[in-house]
Write a structure and sequence with these properties.
This protein has 23 helices and 34 strands. The chain is an alpha+beta fold and 870 residues long. Strands 24-25-26-30-29-28-27 form a 7-stranded antiparallel beta sheet.
């Protein structure tokens, strides 16, 4: 691939993330796509919006495409609290640099459609993102718009008070400051401008929404000089400039402030320019690349709009620059770039050359910068790396490349450490850190419509419930491009990238080689260096040698009772009984998320119908109690606060409510209601969750009780809330679809004579048989057996040509679950069947069932495909 083609693809795959709930929209950072539905950026860009992805949009300027965001996943180890604390304490000062935190990585699930903005939700998120206004030392404050700024300034100046006038945006974030004293404006700061130019730009832009005045207060102005122009002249000049700006803009272009200019000649003589622009005309000349608009030039140059326009007019008249006679400098072909491939298969060492690619935050131009890799940012967090590329502020999420292969995501500049004051360093996340996030399902309200999740959700869960001995193999079978799990080597079932089989590991028989082999395994497991490993070995070996020299001869070995030898790793299998109860009574999915399993809790609850969802990794023990009446309904939850069923709480303690919420769940008007409760004090303190979900049968109710699976470990009730929401997402989706259909159709099934028909007529056995036959024929037509099957087909029966796959299908014919219940002894045979199933979707003419769900068992016997309803 040529360099131009590579740059074009990178540019078409990179976009800007905007908050669209505020006007003008606010740019948060940039991202790049790694699969058809996913993009990657930094967590610092998005942590405020993890529960409100609808508030954001991604704009890809080169293809001119705008898309929405379905969901956001933040790296589990990213410190949201620290990031939020900075956000609430920002002052708007140019020295106010956001911190670069470890594990600064996030993934995005993209949506082709933008969600409609609802006024109440927009108001809610603006309240959440507004900084609490501090009235400490404030004498006057209020709203200010447009020319009202002059009234505020004049009132302070006439009183000849000394103090600090601060201007705020819509979210109470300081955006400009004026130091006033003895009836004059002493200092001014706005954006990258100071002094007279900053004040002139304030008068022209009129950006403020609020103000506050603090008498006798000051600000860390650093070396900012005082304004020498008398205040009356300063105001008059600023007003004159603001009035003349539209006239100059109309002279230069008919497109207004969105006009773009480009250099017409190779070189420019500064001496030929007038004296009033010579001081900055060179940097203006360099900035005119045909991409940046006139509106963004003040941010780039730190010069007010009027002065820039005056210089542009002179350069145009002298023929040095010309107007870009195109609507846009970008291709605007409407086609996103090919998803970028993550490369984790080669080493990167300190001193290696690395390259950054990003879109200029102000102009959108494709930008390349060179630097070197500097090493690891934190020994304890080896995936946080350092580089020396001076990337522009606002470009968080830029690509870091080695040999033009994607190896990292740029975060931002870090504060210099002792001894590194002269070395500017920047942090990046190794792209392999995406593997830490791939096992976690993204929270999305339309999970059924998500191609990536639907196609492999069941398979991924099946793999993660396998024995821990297969963990390394499973990790090796993750797609290096989209990070999804695959059952077998070959084409990725999500994005098509070829996945190679992991090399077979040879275990040495020689004792000396075995020691080296075990040391290598420890090094890989704990991410330690050779030096650390040597130190640890010396620390452990020296005391052992001394003890051996001083100890008496070892006693004869004790006889080991084979009956007491148990496996150290417990493999948890899903209970069929618990799964059936979850599906039949709660409408849950038949496959829990990775790391969870269905537990049979009948031995615990006795005759009371129940099922459990447990997880060691998430430390969750959630019991669902099924009542034949409404005893477990949301109106009766307080009866369980003091003593939740099957939860041991500290004696004598009262339940204290931490949080309570009602989350939409199931059909229209139904909710998952939960209360997070705290019991005990200090070392005896514990928490639990008590909630209720509506049963499929309206006469029944389901009580939800969540607690810690491991004793004396803190309990995260929010993980339980997430689990319930995920397990019931199919049911909630069906409820939403029914509600939408009801709203759209009004009287569904109405006929011309005023009578109604049942639109949800259940398929007859004959119709179901016909559907199963046609589906089997379609899969059979897409089945191509590998060459290894030729010899097996000559036999009458062969276990190698026997495969069983369980799938779940939604109303649109898309797969919501695929689980290999009985694989072939030949991996290629199983792969062929799964590929045939995927190539046959969406399945047509889905018959209606009583419960609205359809599960199929697809079987391969020799070379014949059969389909049965489960």
């Amino acid at each position: 691939m040529s360099f131009d083609s590579l740059q074009q693809n990178f540019a078409h795959a990179t976009g800007f993330i905007y908050d669209r709930t505020i006007s003008p929209r606010k740019m948060l950072g940039q991202c790049f796509i790694v699969s058809k539905s996913r993009a990657v950026t930094t967590a610092n860009n998005l942590y405020n919006y993890s529960e409100a992805p609808w508030a954001l949009e991604i704009y890809f300027p080169h293809p001119d495409v705008t898309i929405g965001i379905k969901s956001i996943a933040i790296h589990n180890d990213f410190d949201r609290r620290e990031a939020r604390n900075y956000y609430l304490q920002q002052t708007g000062s140019p020295l106010d640099v956001p911190p670069v935190l470890l594990n600064d990585l996030a993934t995005i699930v993209m949506d082709s459609q933008l969600a409609e903005l609802q006024a109440d939700k927009v108001a809610e998120i603006n309240r959440a993102l507004s900084i609490p206004f501090s009235s400490q030392g404030v004498e006057a404050s209020g709203n200010v718009r447009g020319t009202e700024l002059f009234s505020v300034i004049n009132s302070v100046l006439e009183s000849r008070r000394e103090g600090l006038l601060t201007l705020y945006d819509k979210r109470n974030i300081p955006m400009a400051r004026l130091q006033l004293g003895q009836g004059t404006i002493l200092k001014c700061h706005y954006r990258a401008m100071i002094g007279e130019m900053a004040f002139a730009e304030l008068v022209y832009r009129k950006p403020a929404e609020g103000y506050s005045f603090q008498p006798m207060a000051t600000f860390n102005w650093g070396g900012v000089r005082d304004i020498t122009v008398p205040t009356d002249q300063l105001i008059q000049e600023a007003v004159r400039r603001a009035n003349e700006v539209p006239q100059i803009v109309n002279y230069l272009s008919s497109t207004g402030m969105e006009a773009r200019f480009q250099r017409s000649v190779g070189e420019m003589s500064v001496e030929n320019c007038s004296e009033n622009i010579r001081w900055f005309v060179e940097i203006l000349w360099q900035a005119l690349d045909g991409y940046i608009t006139v509106d963004r030039l003040p941010e780039r140059l730190g010069v007010d709009t009027y002065t820039i326009l005056q210089a542009l007019r002179e350069l145009v008249n002298k023929g040095y620059v010309s107007l870009l006679n195109r609507a846009s400098p970008f291709p605007c072909n409407g086609q996103l770039g090919t998803p970028l491939v993550s490369h984790t298969d080669f080493d990167i060492n300190p001193g290696d050359s690395v390259t950054a690619f990003y879109l200029d935050p102000l102009s959108g131009a494709a930008t390349w910068q060179q630097g070197t890799f500097f090493g690891v940012s934190s020994v304890l967090q080896p995936k946080n790396l350092l580089h020396t590329i001076p990337i522009l502020p606002g470009a968080a999420g830029a690509l870091i490349l080695k040999n033009y292969k994607l190896v990292g995501v740029h975060g931002g500049a870090i504060a210099p450490k002792a001894g590194q004051e002269n070395q500017r360093l920047f942090q990046m996340m190794w792209i392999g850190a995406l593997l830490d996030m791939s096992a976690r399902k993204l929270r999305t309200a339309q999970e059924g419509a998500e191609e990536e999740t639907d196609g492999i959700a069941g398979l991924r869960s099946k793999l993660e419930s396998d024995s821990t001995a297969a963990a390394a193999e499973k990790a090796a079978l993750q797609c290096p491009n989209c990070m999804s799990f695959n059952a077998k080597p070959g084409p990725c079932i999500t994005c098509g990238t070829e996945i190679e089989a992991p090399p077979e590991e040879v275990v040495p028989e020689n004792k000396v080689e075995m020691v080296v082999y075990q040391a290598k395994k420890l090094k890989e497991k704990y991410n330690i260096t050779n030096k650390q490993l040597a130190i640890a070995g010396a620390v452990v070996a020296l005391p052992l040698v001394m003890m051996m020299m001083c100890s008496s001869p070892a006693p004869p070995p004790a006889v080991k009772d084979a009956t007491t030898d148990t496996a150290t790793n417990t493999v948890h299998q899903n209970s069929d009984k618990a799964m059936q109860n979850a599906v039949d009574f709660a409408g849950f999915k038949a496959t829990p998320p990775p790391g969870y399993w269905f537990e049979d809790t009948s031995s615990l609850t006795g005759e009371q119908k129940s099922f459990g969802l447990y997880s060691e990794r998430a430390n969750q023990k959630i019991i669902f109690l099924i009542y034949d009446d409404l005893s477990g309904g949301e109106n009766n939850l307080k009866n369980f606060f003091q003593k939740p069923p099957f939860v041991t709480v500290p004696g004598g303690s009262e339940a204290k409510e931490i949080e309570s919420q009602r989350v939409p769940f199931g059909e229209e008007g139904q909710f998952f209601t939960y209360h997070a409760l705290k019991y005990g004090f200090l070392e005896n303190a514990m928490s639990a969750l008590v909630g209720s979900i509506p049963a499929l049968d309206a006469k029944k109710s389901i009580l939800v009780v969540g607690q810690s699976l491991k004793e004396k470990e803190a309990y995260n009730y929010k993980a339980a809330v997430w689990l319930v929401d995920q397990m019931g997402s199919d049911r909630t989706k069906r409820g939403n679809q029914a509600m939408m259909a009801k709203n759209e159709d009004g009287k569904d099934g109405a006929t011309t004579d005023g009578t109604t028909t049942d639109a949800a007529e259940v398929a007859t056995p004959e119709q179901m048989t016909e559907f199963l036959g046609k589906t089997g024929e379609k899969i059979q037509g897409n089945l191509t057996l590998p060459n290894e099957a030729a010899d097996e087909l000559k036999k009458k029966k062969s276990k190698k040509l026997k495969v069983r796959v369980i799938v779940a299908v939604d109303s649109e014919g898309k797969l919501t679950k695929i689980e290999i219940s009985e694989p072939s002894e030949l991996e290629s045979i199983t792969n062929a069947v799964v590929k045939a199933i995927n190539n046959s979707t969406p399945i047509e003419n889905i018959p209606k069932t009583k419960d609205g769900k359809l599960s199929l068992k697809i079987s391969l016997d020799m070379d014949k495909i059969t389909v049965e309803q489960i």
